[in-house]
Amino acid sequence: MGKQWMKPLGAVLVAGTLLVGGTAWVAPGNYAYAAEVQGVQQNVIHVVGKGEIQVKPDIAYLSIGVNSTAETAASAQKANAAKIQKVSNLLKNTWKISADDIQTSQFYVQPNYTYNDKEGQKIKGYTAHHTLTITYREMDKIGELLDAASGAGANNIENVRFTVENPENFEAQVIEKAVANADVKAGAIAKAVKRQLGAVLSVSQGDANVPVFYATESLMAKDVAESAAGTEIETGQVKVSTTLNITYEMK
């Protein structure tokens, strides 16, 4: 839920009126006051201010998977368990990645089918799949880590996701930009109708937004010769943004 600030005028606007079925009902003796309220409501400007900045990501999520195929489901699962254990040991022991930062995000064993007109659909073996999602913070070593995982048996490296671990550190900056953006919009509107911009009457903030940037790295069945060249991963930048709904007095 967004944040909201409002001057006492907000209470003034609703005093003496009651909304019934979408129509304002005015208590006897309050007609003059209701007219005043209507005049106040007509002398406001509502705008949405947008603020955003581009920042370098400081955290990545790597999806590293292993596939194994065998004649039976049990054989496929057993072969895959040995492979994923090797990859997991590499991550924990060689790369010193905490177990808290390694999580199974996908696991399944499924049949593989063949089809021909004579026999129809038949099962031809099974494939076991196990994906680990790794939380990683050393941006300059991601390519090297992916190559090491591939060499250890990971044959389905799906994607790398970049984002900012603590977006609240940038909130003040994007709020300032959103206010400045709203001021420009409201000022332009007031000028266009030959009025002057007054004080801010209310502000409500939308949720801050930090999109996740995906860098898809297709290492499906990548062999050792290909990985010898080294994988280069570009982190780019991610956008941190927010919106403010601001109501101004118009003089």
Automatic annotation (TrEMBL):
One matching Pfam family: SIMPL
Stored InterPro entries? 26kDa_periplasmic_antigen, SIMPL/DUF541
Membrane-crossing segments per the record:
none
Q: Name one GO biological process term.
A: DNA damage response
- State the superkingdom: Bacteria
What is this protein identified as? SIMPL domain-containing protein
